[in-house]
Write a structure and sequence with these properties.
about 150 residues; alpha+beta; nine-stranded antiparallel beta sheet; 3 helices; 9 strands
Amino acid sequence: MDRRDGFRELDRHECLRLLSLVPIGRIVYTHDALPAVLPVNFSLDRDHSVVLRTSAASRLAHAVDGAVVAFQADRFDEAAHTGWSVIVTGRATLVTDPRDKEELRAVGLRSWMAVPEEAFIRIAPELVTGCTLQGGWGGGDERDTSRLADVP
C-alpha cells in the first residue's frame, strides 16, 4: 500500500497480536451460494487459529465445516481517524476431539447466547493480512447527516 495514503501493511505477527486485543469480529462465509457475514465473539487458540463457540444446531456450524472462510476484526478511533483491521482466511472445521473441546472450554471462550449443545469452530490462519490507518488529514467526517432524522 502507498504509505502516503495513510495505510500501513502489517506483518503476520503484528496482525495476530492485534487480534488478541479484541473480543468481537466477523466471520464471512457462504450460505445458499450467497455471501453471509455474522458478528461473533472469538478467541485465538495456542496455534493462533481463530476459535468460535456457537450452537451445534446453528446455520453457521453447518455452513462452515470444511469450507474456506474469512474472519475480520478491527478497532478504530473515529475522532482520531486511526485504527487497524485484520483478516484471517482459512479452512474452518468443527472441533470434534473431546480433549480439544475441554481445552477450549478451559480458556473461557463462551458464546454470548445460551446454547443447548455447543460447537467449537476453528479457523486455520492460512492467510493473515492487515493494515493500520494513520489519520491526520484533518478533513473530519464529510458524510451528509442532514437527512438522518428522516430515516424511520
